[in-house]
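Hello,

Our lab assistant flagged a job as stuck in the queue for most of the afternoon. It eventually completed. Since we weren't sure the result was trustworthy after the delay, we are filing this so someone can double-check. Below is the sequence as submitted and the structure that was eventually returned. Let us know if re-running is recommended.
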Amino acid sequence: MTDADRQADGRWMRRALALARRAEGRTSPNPLVGAVVVKNGRAVGEGWHKGPGRPHAEIEALTAAGRRAKGATLYVTLEPCTHTDKRTPPCAPAVIRSAPARVVVGMRDPNPKVAGRGVAALKAAGIAVGVGVEEARCRGLNAPYVRAMETGLPWVTLKVAQTLDGKVATARGESKWITGEAARRHGHGLRARNDVILVGVGTVLADDPALTCRLVRGRDPVRVVVDPRLETPPNARVLTEGRPTPTILATLAATPAAKPTAARRLEAAGARLLKVRGRAGRMDLGWLLMALVAEGRHRVLCEGGPRLAAELVGRGLVNRVAFYTAPRILGGDDARGAIGGTAPARLAGALRLGPLAVRRLGDDVLIEADVLPPEGRNISRKRGAGKGDRK
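-- returned structure --
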């Protein structure tokens, strides 16, 4: 393969990636996938997966190409599937019937029901297959899906609105509004790209948030409140606004004997109670997150508060941070910091972040970065925990 051929492969795969991103926030529990059919140096068919139960990207692109797909090159960001226990037909047989001369795959599908079978089927049919073009970008695009398939855990983004000195509320708990309208609107867009908004009951009691995407057009995510003792009021906005989007109250499996009445009232208000295992009155957040993945929810946005953030950070359950920082300095030892709990004794225990992405939002600044795993730590794998069409 010449340098010109490799450059062309990269260019068309980047086009497929751009197509896949058009459905961001709408495909879970399925991955984002884009596809392009190219013949004689021109795109003759394009497509992307638009949501569960909808045709996969390969089918969209091949349908658009029609007879021109024969002898062409198909670029697809994720390996075509082969299994049938899902709502849509498998893609690999359809690709074979369209008779492209070559298929270029961005990355193999980590779903154990695919895991190389799609590539093998194409090769067995006599189609030339290339794998790994723009693989890092393809994996980055579907980081939540990859994490769910490989570990059984969702991709957790920790969102914080803070002052320049890292405070999220005054000593009395006042926090509305630290950031300006542009930052809040962007934050609602971030909500729309996630499957779940996760908060602690302290945030519900202090701020009574609705946790919807009312400032932007988009799907409201499922709201999950970590509420071990069922303290959420039945008239809380998280229960009364944003319907039909459900609200899940994650409570301890060993609910105190005095709480059955509270449970009935909350269920009557529309809450779904999810009993989570715990120990010594503390909830197992890892178990909760795995339960969300088992329901097909791969993207979780944590919005507070400091105690919940500390629990997630301390257990290594945060994958990305999004800190909206306002040009204010609050000061004071008694003002509330973004991350609660006890600090590590040494700097070596600090959370390690990858390269920062920084952008202005009105007067505020958004800082985003992926969390790097602690040095020397291996993440145990529990493959195949996520649900989706592509399973």
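-- support follow-up --
The delay was a queue issue, not a problem with the job. The result is valid. DSSP finds twelve helices and 19 strands in the chain. The two ends are 34 Å apart (CA to CA).
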